[in-house]
Structure formats: structure tokens, C-alpha cells
């Protein structure tokens, strides 16, 4: 209470104590002179002062550094609130406003087809296609006061639709400069490539009842408590050199994902994109399923099947920009040079060669919010990973910016308020309409504060952000630093450096790390030795032995310390070699690097199977002894630079021990823990069935009452070089409370079934459950 009256050195002592105070859960700190400090349990006065504010500044309760930017937060929230109130007044609320896909575009009904399109800059507009023999000027549309053109085409005399299912339909626009422009509907549900022109043409998707996919399972899966994401691309999911189909992915890839233990898939490149090599990020048709991999019904079957397996389905959605294509995209749709996008330089993304949306326009908001609703309602997606959020948050799009964490970089004139408001509206709408299933993830490299705080507090409303700095640190280490000189403190700091109360998805490797010009993490570690020295029956080279060991250890390190969720890109669980490169002129239009080599882990004679097996075991341990989810206990017990050892308490009474030293093994190594009791090994990167040397003991261990590493008990462990072990306190002594040890017979039975006979694996994962969560804290 007296901090405000302290002066000089005393004030700085108080500031340092503030963070300690917060760690005590809001104790009150009283400083008398410089030597006497009293802690008593009281509420946090700062938090109490801000937490109930309804003007967008409640987020300051958890972050005092935001106080200097309270005016910016208020202004952003005011703009959001005004936009939301206007939508409620004029459109009946976000729920109605976001259903534009039900009346814009081509909408069949029992009497015919209504066609409506927003093109305020057009002077005249016509619809044509297969249905009228491609007569471009026969069917004229009428324009209303809001710039929406419309026409109704009645059924034929025999009662059949005026436009047949899957037939091509296009617009002819005449601009005010008398340019005649052929366009696809911005709301087209399906487009196909014309082999003669290579352009994509819109098709009416209106299958007969018998050809429509019949949903068999609930519309959405409940939001998983621990989000384990398998990032994937349907087109490159085949082992063969061609574009894979939705049906192939459903029948062959989904079972693999389920077996590995992932509970969420994040699918890339669903929205149609004319250029396959863009990885789906240059979207031309926002409501159309990518036709390269099949039909809308095929995608529905994929998602329904995933739900039947307990797998949630996220879409990698691109609302940060759009393809500049005009003849088959929405670039310069009505010939005005703007419409959906900003005009001039502000409407052009110089690094991506694409168009930037004008989020302040009413119809642009309708278009984008309806796009979110469309994919959820029509295809039953459970959430979204928003791509390129950094480009949306700032008027400079993050170009040539090196974000340091200074709050001056986040707020002020560089903040794109309209884009921030759109993201707030989108997140609020999605979470209000689908509260039990919706997951939203923001891809932001800037570290924008409040990104993952609720909208009513003044945040932007995402559930998670991506920990994008983590893979870059590892690549820098692989490329520049010998293993024995790795900075352990910097590594731990990078993994734990995330915003308080804003959840993070951590990953060792996503699709970004393997794009052409770079290579996969396994390739960084093993390089050309991956081609010639992965045989099981031959002694591994030093590069292969090192690569396999570190690939497992570092994945587990990221999983345990990096966030509240985990992500892996398709194939990297088994150390996919080389890189990703889509067919293009520069590679002879080859599909060789746009596929997944499932044959590698399937080959019992190769070591790839060990990396895949370890991935499966990691997820099994997390499912049994939760450690990667919101508000679980996390405490870094030790980060020893000389020994290259990291020890972490995490989750359900787990102790993680990592040894990153390239050659030193530590026997009877004492580590501190606050959980007194008996421990079992539940995971070991050095185990024989994951390609290790089996050097760590799997015997049960009991703590000593001698404190260590500032913890009240200690444990003696063996940590081989480049390895990690996870110990579970299955019998807990503290405070007279005991765990409920469960017989390991179930585990042994499973190991016998799997054909594993070695004693090292007799207590691997199964059957190691004790009572969960007792006194763990948060």
C-alpha cells in the first residue's frame, strides 16, 4: 500500500517485489525501510481497480504495462462496440448479419434460382453460362440502392432448375469506363479449372438429394481439454506424386492421425486457390472447396469421419489478404479498383503480391463474417487458424518490422483499428454461437498484447496464439552453434516466454519450417545421412544417432514447456526428409516434394518408425497424465548451463529430466521435486523401442526428504546424453495425502501384446494412473 510513497532505491525494491507479490497470488507487500517486508493475503489492488471495467480496459488488470495505452484500448473497444450496435440496429445482430451466404450468390429454391451480387462500381451486369449457351448479354441484372445486383431465373416449364447442377455460370460486368469484365461470383460454392484457359470457372453446386452427403455424427466435437493439432494438407497427403483426394485422406490418413493420438486436425488449402504452389494462401474463391481434391460432398465426409473418431477439425482460413487474380478471383471485382479492398498502395501487399481487405466497409464485414459462418454451418468445421494476423493488426502489415516487445510497437497510429474490430467481431460471434466446440488460433509474430483475451475485457478474442519463435531458435542452434555450447537459459526462456493468461500453441515444426528454401528439422539434424544410413540392422552414423536422439528430446521439450497446446505438421512425427515444394516451372512441375513418404515409417527396416513411435507415446503420456493444457502446474526446477540439464515439474505430478549434453551421462543425478513419494518412469527418449540405447533405469524410485534445487525433496535419476525421461509420482506422501497407485498389469499386458519383451518397457505408459490433480495448484 505504501509503494506510491517510497522513493529512490526503495521504489525499485518495491517494483521488484511486485512480481514476487503477484507470484504469491495477490499478497499485499508492505515495505518498512529497506529491510522489513511483510506478506499478507489480500487482493491485488491493481487487479481490483481494472478487472470490472466495461470500456475495453479490463485487460489491464492482468498487465500493468498496458496502463500507458488505456486510451488506445478504449478507442478500439469503442469502435468495436459502435460497429456491433450498428449491426444489431440495421441487420438484426451478428447472427443474421453473418448469414450472407444464404441470400448472396446463386441460391436455388423450389421455384428457381435467385442470383444476387454486390458490385457497386459496375454500370451494367449480366449472368451467363452453360444455361444460356454462353450468351453474355441476354440475362440482365438489376441494381438496388446498396449496389447489389440481382435476377431471378424461374424453373423451366418441365419443373427442372433453370441452371443444371455443376454447370458453369459467370457474370459479365460493364464498368463505368466501359470495360467488359468476366467474373465469377464472389460467393461461388464450387469452381473448376478450365483446361483450355487454365482459369477457374464458377459452377452451381446443387446436387440431387440422393447425391448429397448425409451427416451421420454430431455437427461438432466438444472442445478438447488438451489441444493436440495435426497440421495437414489434403492435396499433398498421398505417398504418390499427385494431388490426393478428400476420400484418400479420409480412408488412409485419418486413421493414422487417430492412432498417433492427435485430437485435432488443422487443414490447409481448403478455400479455392488458382495457384497450387501458394500452399492455399492466395485465395481466389472464399466460399469454394478446393476442387483439386474432390467435391464438397467429399470434404463433408472427411469432417464427419473425423468427428466419429473424436477428432476436432480446424480450417486454416485466410482473411488477411486475397489473390490479385481478377478473372477467377475477387481482385478488382467490379472494376472500380477497390470494392473489397483498400484502393491504391494501401490495398496492395508488396511482399505477398496480393490484395488487402478494407475491413471498415459494411459489405466486406458481411462477406468475411459470413465466410466464417458458412464453413462452420455448412461443413461443420470446429474452428479456425487465422493466417497472417500480424498483417491485419497493423497498417504496415509487419513489413520490415522487427518487433522487440516494446508496447509502442503495438498501439498508436500503426494499429489497423478496422481490422482489429473485425477480428473482435469474428471471435465474439464464433464463441457465442458455438460455445462448446469453437477454437480460434491467431498466427501473429508480433506478440500483440490482448490477442488472446476475451472481447468483453477489451481483448481480440482468440483462444490461442502460435509460439512462432520456438522453431527459429532451434534452426539457429542447428545451423550456427555446436551442441556443447547451446545456451540452456536462452532455450528455456524462449519456451516459457509467453503472455500471462494468453494460451499458446507450441510446435517444434510446422509447415513453415519445411517450405522450399528451407528444410525439415530432421533434415537439419541428419542431412544426407538420412538417405543412406537409416537402416535398423546397421550401426547408425554419428549424424543419424544425434539426429534421432535430438528430434525426440526437442519435441518433448517443446511439448512440455512451450504452451497450452501442441502442433505438428503432417509427416514430421517420423522425421520427414527434405522439404516441401509444389509443382512449378522452376522444378519442372514435379510433385516429388509435394507428397508425404508414409512408406518410410511403414518400413520395419528403417529407423523412421522409432520417431513415429515416440510421437505416439508422447501423446499417450499427456492423455494419461495431463501436462499440456490450460492452468496446469509448471515449474522449472533446474536449468544447468554446465551440465546442459533441464528439470521441470509439470501437470499431473510429472518430473521431466532433459540432458542436452552431447556426450556426458549423469548417474545418480540429484534433482529437486516438491512431490514426495514413489516414482515410475512413464516415458524415455532413450528406450529401445524408440531407437535409443536403453541406458536409463526403469526401476521405481523414491524421493529423499533432503531438499534440492529449492524444492522440499529430491530424486536420484540417470540421464544419458541427448535424452529425456519423464517420471510420475504414483504414490504421493505430502500432507498425509496418498496417491492411488494402480496396478501396472494393464501396461504389461499391452506391452506383451505389442511384442515388447524387454524389462525396460514393462512400465511404459498404460496403467500408471494415480489420483489426478490433488493439491497441484495452477
Question: What attributes does this structure have?
Answer:
21% strand; disordered N terminus; 17 helices; alpha+beta; 25% helix; 33 strands; 8-stranded parallel barrel; 778 residues; single chain; 6-stranded antiparallel sheet
Rounded mean pLDDT is 90
Biggest pleated sheet:
8 strands, parallel, barrel
Radius of gyration: 29 Å
Shape: globular
Low-pLDDT stretches: 1-12, 23-40, 738-778
- Kindly state the number of beta strands: 33
Overview of this structure, please?
The chain is an alpha+beta fold and 778 residues long. The chain contains 17 helices and 33 strands. Helix 3 packs across helix 9 and helix 7 runs parallel beside helix 9. The protein is globular. The two termini are 26 Å apart.
Amino acid at each position: 500500500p505504501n509503494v506510491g510513497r517510497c522513493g529512490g532505491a526503495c521504489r525499485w525494491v518495491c517494483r521488484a517485489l511486485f512480481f514476487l507479490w503477484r507470484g504469491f497470488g495477490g499478497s499485499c507487500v508492505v515495505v518498512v525501510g529497506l529491510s522489513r517486508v511483510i506478506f499478507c493475503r489480500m487482493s491485488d489492488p491493481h487487479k481490483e481497480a481494472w478487472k470490472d471495467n466495461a470500456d475495453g480496459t479490463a485487460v489491464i488488470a492482468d498487465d500493468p504495462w498496458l496502463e500507458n495505452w488505456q486510451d488506445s484500448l478504449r478507442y478500439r473497444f469503442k469502435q468495436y462496440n459502435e460497429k456491433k450496435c450498428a449491426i444489431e440496429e440495421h441487420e438484426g445482430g451478428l447472427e443474421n448479419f453473418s448469414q450472407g451466404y444464404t441470400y448472396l450468390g446463386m441460391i436455388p429454391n423450389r421455384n428457381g434460382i435467385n442470383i444476387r451480387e454486390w458490385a457497386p462500381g459496375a454500370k451494367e451486369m449480366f449472368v451467363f453460362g452453360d444455361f444460356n449457351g454462353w450468351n453474355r448479354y441476354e440475362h440482365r441484372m438489376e441494381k438496388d440502392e446498396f449496389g447489389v445486383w440481382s435476377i431471378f431465373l424461374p424453373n423451366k416449364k418441365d419443373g427442372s432448375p433453370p441452371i443444371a447442377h455443376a454447370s458453369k455460370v459467370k457474370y459479365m460486368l460493364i464498368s463505368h469506363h466501359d470495360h467488359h469484365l468476366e467474373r465469377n461470383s464472389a460467393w461461388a460454392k464450387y469452381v473448376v479449372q478450365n483446361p483450355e484457359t487454365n482459369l477457374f470457372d464458377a459452377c452451381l453446386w446443387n446436387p440431387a438429394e440422393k447425391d448429397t452427403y448425409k451427416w451421420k455424427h454430431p455437427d461438432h466435437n466438444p472442445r478438447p481439454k488438451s489441444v493436440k493439432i495435426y497440421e495437414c494438407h489434403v492435396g499433398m497427403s498421398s505417398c504418390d506424386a499427385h494431388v490426393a483426394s478428400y476420400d484418400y485422406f479420409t480412408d488412409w490418413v485419418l486413421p493414422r492421425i487417430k492412432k498417433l493420438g492427435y485430437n485435432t486436425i488443422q487443414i490447409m488449402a481448403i478455400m479455392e486457390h488458382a495457384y497450387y504452389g501458394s500452399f492455399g494462401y492466395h485465395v481466389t474463391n472464399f466460399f469454394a472447396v478446393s476442387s483439386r481434391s474432390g467435391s464438397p460432398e467429399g470434404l463433408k465426409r472427411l469432417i464427419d469421419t473425423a468427428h466419429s473418431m473424436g477428432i476436432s477439425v480446424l480450417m486454416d482460413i485466410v482473411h488477411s489478404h486475397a489473390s490479385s487474380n481478377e478473372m477467377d478471383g475477387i481482385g478488382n471485382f467490379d472494376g472500380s479498383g477497390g470494392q473489397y479492398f483498400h484502393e491504391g498502395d494501401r490495398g496492395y501487399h508488396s511482399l505477398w503480391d496480393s490484395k488487402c481487405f478494407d475491413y471498415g466497409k459494411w459489405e466486406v464485414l458481411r462477406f468475411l463474417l459470413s465466410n466464417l459462418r458458412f464453413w462452420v454451418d455448412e461443413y461443420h468445421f470446429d474452428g479456425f487458424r487465422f493466417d497472417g494476423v500480424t498483417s491485419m493488426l497493423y497498417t504496415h502489415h509487419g513489413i520490415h518490422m522487427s518487433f522487440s516487445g516494446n508496447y509502442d510497437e503495438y498501439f498508436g497510429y500503426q494499429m489497423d483499428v478496422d481490422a482489429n474490430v473485425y477480428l473482435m467481431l469474428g471471435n465474439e460471434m464464433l464463441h457465442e454461437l458455438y460455445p462448446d466446440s469453437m477454437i480460434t488460433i491467431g498466427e501473429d509474430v508480433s506478440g500483440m498484447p490482448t490477442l488472446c483475451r476475451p472481447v468483453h475485457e477489451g481483448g481480440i478474442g482468440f483462444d490461442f496464439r502460435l509460439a512462432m519463435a520456438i522453431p527459429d531458435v532451434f534452426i539457429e542452434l542447428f545451423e550456427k552453434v555446436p551442441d556443447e555450447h547451446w545456451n540452456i537459459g536462452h532455450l528455456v526462456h524462449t519456451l516459457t516466454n509467453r503472455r500471462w493468461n494468453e494460451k499458446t500453441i507450441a510446435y517444434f515444426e510446422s509447415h513453415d519450417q519445411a517450405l522450399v528454401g528451407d528444410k525439415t528439422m530432421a533434415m537439419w539434424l541428419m542431412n544426407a545421412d538420412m538417405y543412406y544410413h537409416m537402416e535398423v540392422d546397421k550401426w547408425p552414423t554419428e549424424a543419424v544417432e544425434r539426429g534421432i536422439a535430438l528430434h525426440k528430446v526437442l519435441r518433448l521439450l517443446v511439448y512440455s514447456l512451450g504452451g497450452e497446446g501442441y502442433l505438428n505438421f503432417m509427416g514430421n512425427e517420423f522425421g520427414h526428409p527434405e522439404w516441401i515444394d509444389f509443382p512449378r516451372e522452376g522444378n519442372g512441375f514435379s510433385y516429388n516434394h509435394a507428397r508425404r513418404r508414409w512408406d518410410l515409417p511403414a518400413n520395419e527396416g528403417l529407423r523412421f518408425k522409432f520417431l513415429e513411435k515416440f510421437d505416439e507415446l508422447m501423446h499417450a503420456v499427456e492423455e494419461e497424465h495431463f501436462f499440456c493444457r490450460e492452468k496446469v502446474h509448471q515449474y522449472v526446477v533446474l536449468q544447468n548451463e554446465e551440465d546442459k540439464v533441464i528439470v521441470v515439474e509439470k501437470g499431473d505430478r510429472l518430473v521431466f529430466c532433459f540432458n542436452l549434453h552431447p556426450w556426458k551421462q549423469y548417474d545418480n543425478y540429484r534433482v529437486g521435486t516438491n512431490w514426495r513419494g514413489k516414482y515410475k518412469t512413464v516415458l524415455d527418449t532413450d528406450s529401445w523401442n524408440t531407437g535409443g540405447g536403453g541406458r536409463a533405469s526403469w526401476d521405481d524410485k523414491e524421493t529423499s526428504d533432503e531438499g534440492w534445487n529449492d524444492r522440499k525433496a529430491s530424486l536420484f535419476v540417470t540421464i544419458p546424453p541427448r535424452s529425456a525421461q519423464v517420471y510420475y509420482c504414483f504414490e504421493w506422501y505430502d500432507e498425509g495425502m496418498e496417491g492411488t497407485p494402480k496396478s501396472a498389469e494393464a501396461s504389461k499386458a499391452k506391452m506383451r501384446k505389442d511384442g515388447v519383451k524387454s524389462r525396460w518397457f514393462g512400465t511404459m505408459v498404460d496403467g500408471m494412473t494415480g489420483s489426478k490433480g490433488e493439491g497441484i495448484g495452477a
